[in-house]
Specification:
2 domains, elongated, 6-stranded antiparallel beta sheet, 9-stranded mixed beta sheet, 17 strands
């Protein structure tokens, strides 16, 4: 439950996004941003949580976008999800597009007045900020939009993703029951919002909320519920007015291309297992990865976990792949090894390079191997 989700697509928008860095190749007169676009796989790195820097996740955006990311650890936080905070900010060269991925967060509530008062007074050893429970659409309206200083034009849950959220909630509830916690139940939702900013720009917002509901006897009789609302995904794409269709293609490929490193995710799971079992003195030992595993990760430029959806990151698949399929702005390609790659729709030719870059073009005569004298591999639809 506590993980980064982290996580790019571009059709015509890429033409404008890459316009400022357009350049002509002397041998073929092919112009970047007109005859072809180059996409790049960017990587988030955790430099604090392990004995060596470790990649957290990766995603595809235009190669000339400016991407900054941060992963922070703070074991003194009372709110469990806020102990590990990852964020991303990506901006197009012309400043017309700004992608913001905010850290996970959680807010708590109780239907029991006495327990709610105790939460507000900080009497609970581990608690997050206090707010009434809501679904993902409600959070976009009352949490995410105000945070980015935008007005909400529309915010709705996504029916196409509800089945996946329900399955995740059921799995979590079953896991709790198997551990003897029959008082636990879960309810999830995913939502999309359309935003309006004061500077005239528009925005798309995406959010997932997973509620953990603990039912117990109330302090004044009857039954009461303590409710934790975990916001596992909080993403906003701000863009120039009128480019909604193009913006949706950006998000579609971003979601579809996001890959979570199971090595890092496994370490985070071990960390939280240590925290929840009051074993903080041992947590750093538990999350160390072996030198051999670290070397394997460092030696492979294109990691095997980037070429497939990993079982260890099943919840991440719900958040990213599900949104990508919902937005439907990508087409499927396969490389020479048979691995599936989802890239922006609207192009007839695509190539990949070993450094994680992709090149797309509608010009049938264009060959990047000739133009750049580099080793590009053609992708098949």
């Amino acid at each position: 439950m506590y993980k980064l989700l982290i996580a790019a697509g571009f059709i015509s928008i890429l033409l404008s996004c890459n316009a400022q860095s357009s350049q002509k190749n002397n041998s073929s007169n092919m112009v970047e941003g007109k005859d072809y676009v180059i996409l790049k796989r960017f990587r988030i790195e955790d430099k604090l949580g392990f004995n060596h820097p470790l990649e957290v996740s990766s995603f595809v955006l235009p190669a000339n976008w400016q991407v900054n990311s941060s992963v922070q650890w703070d074991v003194t936080k009372k709110c469990f999800p806020e102990m590990i905070q990852a964020s991303v900010k990506a901006t197009s060269p012309d400043g017309d597009y700004e992608l913001m991925l905010f850290p996970v967060t959680q807010f708590d509530w109780s239907t029991d007045a006495v327990q709610l008062d105790a939460m507000k007074r900080g009497f609970y050893p581990h608690a997050c900020y206090i707010a009434q429970p809501t679904d993902a659409a409600g959070y976009i309206k009352y949490g995410l939009a105000p945070y980015v200083k935008a007005q909400v034009k529309l915010a709705n849950t996504i029916p196409e993703l509800q089945q996946q959220m329900d399955a995740s909630a059921l799995q979590m509830s079953n896991t709790a029951r198997q551990a003897g916690n029959n008082a636990y139940s879960h309810r999830g939702s995913a939502a999309e919002g359309v935003l309006q900013f004061e500077d005239g720009k528009e925005g798309l917002a995406f959010c997932t909320i997973m509620q953990t509901i603990v039912t117990m006897p109330g302090t004044q009789g009857g039954m009461a519920s303590n409710i934790q609302c975990y916001a596992g995904m909080r993403i906003v794409l701000k863009y120039k007015a009128g480019n909604n269709e193009m913006a949706r293609k950006i998000m579609s490929t971003f979601f579809s291309s996001t890959r979570l490193n199971p090595q890092w995710f496994g370490g985070v799971q071990a960390f939280y297992a240590a925290v929840t079992s009051n074993a903080q003195n041992q947590l750093w030992k538990q999350i160390q990865i072996t030198q051999k595993a670290q070397q394997e990760i460092g030696d492979n430029i294109i990691r095997s976990w980037e070429a497939r959806n990993n079982t260890a990151a099943s919840a991440s698949k719900t958040d990213t792949d599900g949104f990508g399929q919902y937005l439907r702005g990508v087409e499927n390609y396969t490389d020479e090894s048979g691995n599936k790659i989802e890239l922006t729709s609207g192009y007839t030719n695509a190539w990949s390079k070993s450094d994680g870059s992709y090149l797309m073009s509608n010009n049938p005569a264009f060959d990047p191997n000739v133009t750049f004298n580099e080793d590009w591999k053609r992708l098949n639809k």
